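User: Hi! I'm a student and our assignment asks us to look at how structure tokens line up with a sequence. Could you show me two examples?

Assistant: Happy to help. In each example below, the sequence comes first and the structure tokens follow. Example one:
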Amino acid sequence: MSNIEVRIADWHKDNTDLRRIRERVFIDEQGVSPEQEWDSLDASAIHFLAIEDGYAMGTARLLPDGNIGRVSVLKEWRGLKVGEALMHAAIATAEQRGLNQQTLTAQVHAARFYERLGFKTISDEFIEAGIPHVDMLRVSE
């Protein structure tokens, strides 16, 4: 990982990359149904792409209410701080838009990752798409 760039993506122009990453991570690997993965919120979200040498390997989205979601990194790129770069971009964009509280629904196994970025668990564990999750909140200082 030498030249990772995170940029705001265009839902229409970058749709192929956004869909490829999310389909591979959520639908293929985790067994989430396409009906659960694709929702009407994508059209109004700010999407982010992590790219190295022209290849997109990670994505996330920020909703108008400050909710960050669909954070996904292709398996071969995990552990290289791609997810962290995506989250920093999403948090910074939220703060620039005056969204000083960011929320997310984290898979339980990833909660520690989000805690390192300042998120705190605010719910009991629950099942979503067959996977244990918790709701988390981050308040900007």
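Example two works the same way, sequence first and then tokens:
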Amino acid sequence: MKNPFSAVCVAALTMMVLIGCASNPTEPEAPSLIYGTTATEALNGADLPLEVGQQLEVRLQSNRSTGHQWMQTEPMRGMLRDASPRYEIPPSPEGSEPRTGVGGTEIFSFVAARPGVQVLIFEYRRSWETSQEATKRIYYRVVIH
């Protein structure tokens, strides 16, 4: 005859395992970046949902010392208001001279102005090489609610 105490323990352990599995899904969650306010090159081709008034910041790795820079190529259609792009380089280690040729980040900022869809296309290229293909090309489809 089985011990009733061990049967209760087995049932309790089984319940704990089942509850643990339910709270820790095996499928990864969608990155919070997609609904957040920051997009990177890793999200190339993604739909980026925004609410009216929400800000979007596109951060793309760049090295302007090579002559390349990210350029927005798709005309704006009024769904997004854009701010002036900026370029940031990481600070030099304390006490050292500024580093020549170091890469940085190009930052494009937008604010969702009205509902609609705006495709943002960026090309990484040298501005004077107009007949050359872009070194890189990325896009996002911004859906504003």
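Here is something you could point out in your write-up. Residues 4-23 form the longest helix (20 residues).
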